[in-house]
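Retro notes (design track)

What went well: tokenization of the new backbones is finally stable.
What didn't: we kept losing track of which sequence belonged to which structure.
Fix going forward: every design gets posted as structure first, then sequence, in one message. First example under the new rule, 134 residues:
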């Protein structure tokens, strides 16, 4: 059985095929890293909403693209892990401009190959205190 396949409901029209949730999240991060704002916008479904947990900010599709496009600096995004099941995908990424480094956990909901919801949880990369260093 295909783990990406949704159960069939005879009362609902079939969902058009699209990339798996994991592939959709990978495409989103690749567009973000490439600074390909056209492709980034194409990754987002109508009605898309993003939440940045650490600030409480919410963005629709246009605002999400603008926020990333207009953010100062030349940031690189490296997707380190993706776990996907059905219409949900989670990822872990490293974001750096060569001076500062952050880590972000991404939680996406996907429909028809496009992100409909994205929750981002950010943290700054820090060294452990001396008493906990390895």
């Amino acid at each position: 059985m295909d783990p990406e396949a949704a159960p069939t409901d005879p009362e609902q029209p079939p969902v058009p095929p699209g990339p798996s949730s994991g592939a959709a999240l990978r495409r989103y991060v690749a567009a973000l890293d490439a600074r390909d704002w056209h492709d980034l916008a194409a990754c987002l479904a109508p009605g898309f909403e993003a939440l940045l947990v650490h600030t409480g900010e919410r963005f629709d599709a246009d605002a999400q693209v603008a926020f990333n496009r207009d953010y100062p600096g030349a940031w690189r995004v490296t997707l380190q892990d993706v776990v996907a099941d059905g219409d949900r995908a989670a990822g872990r990424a490293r974001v750096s401009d060569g001076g500062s480094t952050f880590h972000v956990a991404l939680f996406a909901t996907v429909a028809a190959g496009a992100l409909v919801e994205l929750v981002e949880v950010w943290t700054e990369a820090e060294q452990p205190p001396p008493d906990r260093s390895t």
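Added context from the reviewer: The chain has a mean pLDDT of 88.
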